[in-house]
């Protein structure tokens, strides 16, 4: 509907234009009395060229003459024409063509250093408005080499450095400019902005460094706690091995913690949770309960290592049973828990009254992807019998 409305508006506008065109005479059209005079102004139809060509009265002829006799002019004259051409493009915000004109002017290699400086600063301005900050800075730098006190070059250089977040360098440009132009307000404003942003960037860098150090310290403490308990992490399907102590980049001991990468604790990416150490020194793990009979699962984001399995089972299967348990048989007292040892293809049955820590410390329990997982079956069910057929099952000792 919107497209149709736009089309209607466009058609109405065109009809109005055509109606107006029919009733209004074209003011600049040739007529019987002046057509020969008007034709004489067009270079293609001129019978004789004027002795002196004024660009104001004969702009087309002046342009043609410039093109034909360009080689007869000095490099300075050619560069000046190209500069003026670039300025016209710049006024029209046609920055790409302005750059081409200024570049062509610089290629004339004229000896007028003042003109070359202007060409460079103008090209820097065109690059700046196109977002080519590095090219703009290069041109401002080149102009500054020719004229160290050139105000436009100094201002443009400072602006580019600000955009590139090189705040210290921006201050240097401003200081150089203020030395030559101590009262220039633009340079004063740029310096104040650069100084403010420099201090803010330094503050953010200090905060980031402090946070990085804090995170590193927390990782050290976490992995040290896991190592101290003898809990084994699975990394790329292999048990994580702790190497001997080594020095980290800050000179501190990495304590054999595999560069603190936590590669064996990657559950946060998949679940949004990760094992953590609370202020009392207890570990809290993200734990997954699997119900293969119904292809369902439960996720506990923070299972304290000192809590027993029955504590959570009593909550999950208490007064309100899950909707998928249509036979109402998943009662806490009916449930059996197992963890799997994939290497030995063995299931270990876990006593629900056992703490999570005791299970994780078992020599055949491996934490995969940072999240311990346990299979939950109903004691005496036909599915349990079928599921365990052919599998080696051991009770947790």
UniProtKB/TrEMBL annotation:
Molecular functions per Gene Ontology: Hsp70 protein binding; Hsp90 protein binding
Domain of life: Eukaryota
InterPro entries, sorted: Csn1/TTC4_wheel, TPR-like_helical_dom_sf, TPR_rpt
Basic and acidic residues: bias regions: 191-207
Region (Disordered): 191-216, 235-255
GO terms classed as biological process: protein folding
Cellular component terms (Gene Ontology): cytosol; nucleus
Cns1/TTC4 wheel domain: residues covered: 277-382
Keywords of this entry: Repeat, TPR repeat
CDD domains: CTWD_Cns1
Similarity comment: Belongs to the TTC4 family.
Name of protein: Tetratricopeptide repeat domain 4
Gene: TTC4
